[in-house]
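Structure representation:
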Amino acid sequence: ISNLDYLVKEEIVEGFSHPVFNSVSGLAGSPGYSVFPNPAKEYLTILIGNCSAGIADLYDSKGTHLRHTILDNGSTLLDVSDLRSGSYLIRLMTEEFVGFEKIVIER
């Protein structure tokens, strides 16, 4: 099991009261959010649908928490220009859902 998979399973075990969407395990196109482009180079756009606010947490492949970002107005631009090439995990949380998205940074 990879560290990214462990992070996802850890969240599910905690038992959120709202739906948990996990595209890492293959439920791509989950309702409520979109993260693009993937792979990314400089910036990621995070859309959270009809939600007016939420948070995004970014983790590296070892499970280290790298940053915490407030999501507002349904769309947020996240600067990833300082990250090394590799795989990362974004956890998105709003009042309506918790979602996970595996992203790739390419240099």
Observations:
- DSSP finds one helix and eight strands in the chain.
- Residues 24 and 102 are 6 Å apart (CA to CA).
- The beta strands are 20-22, 34-36, 43-47, 53-60, 65-72, 75-79, 86-93, 98-105.
